[in-house]
Amino acid sequence: MLPNKFGNYLAALLFVLLSFGKTQDCLAQSPLVFPEKTKNFTTDNLGNIYTLTADNQVVKYTPDGQEQFRYPNRTLGEATLLDATNPFHLLLFFAQQQTVLTLDRTLNLSGQYNLMQMGFQRADAVGMASDGQ
């Protein structure tokens, strides 16, 4: 079995390849190692990095790897999707609860939507439109 940190190194390597793979300074970039076990990560178009930790926290890092903000949610179960298409309006989806949370750029809660109450029977995926809807 591989050590727990292997997933963090793999995520860091993927980030470097995805973010800098098209530039010549890719080799000059040092890999980022997240300080805690992560389930998933994504980036926004400003270069910020968002991780979804094993204990269900969203953590925002600057492009150079400095932690900026943290959003914990331990009441809705496991988060299944984090959409950072718009860095000023993030989307966090909890599939089991059929609930979508929106977070602002500092990871403060800005909205909560129960999809079942809105008439959706079973959403498997959600996403943010370019107009913020």
Structural class: mainly beta
Biggest pleated sheet: 4 strands, antiparallel
Strand order of the largest sheet: 1-2-3-4
Silhouette: globular
Count of individual beta strands: 8
* Low-confidence runs: 1-14, 16-28
Report the helical percentage: 10-25%
Rg is: 16 Å
CATH topology grouping: Thrombin, subunit H
What is the distance, rounded to the nearest whole angstrom, between the alpha carbons of the first and last residues? 43 Å
- The DSSP helix count reads 1
Number of separate domains:
1
Strand percentage: 25-35%
What is the N-to-C succession of helices and strands?
A: HEEEEEEEE
Quick gist of this model?
The chain is mainly beta.
Model description:
With 133 residues, the chain is mainly β. The protein has a single domain, classed as Thrombin, subunit H, CATH 2.40.10. It has one helix and eight strands; from the N terminus they run αββββββββ. A hairpin with a 3-residue loop joins β2 (49-53) and β3. The model is unreliable at 1-14 and 16-28 (pLDDT under 50).
How does the SSE layout of this entry go?
Layout: H1 5-20, E1 38-43, E2 49-53, E3 57-61, E4 67-72, E5 81-83, E6 89-94, E7 99-104, E8 109-114
Antiparallel strand pairs: 1-2, 2-3, 3-4, 5-6, 6-7, 7-8
Task: Name a few traits of the molecule.
single chain; mainly beta; Thrombin, subunit H; four-stranded antiparallel sheet; 12% helix; globular
